[in-house]
Amino acid sequence: MLxxxxxxxxxxxxxxxxxxxxxxxxxxxxxAILRLIIRNCEEKDIKNEILEKGMTIF
Length: 58
Known about the structure:
58 residues
């Protein structure tokens, strides 16, 4: 019960920050991020098979 009360109080205090963060998360282009990660993996010779398989999902 105390946990729920503290969570509710926290969210009331941080409401504006939470809204901004949600807005920014919605604007992130996942495909662009995956391309950047794959490119960096190739530059550093890191296996990126999992990421390449993930790209086919999108």
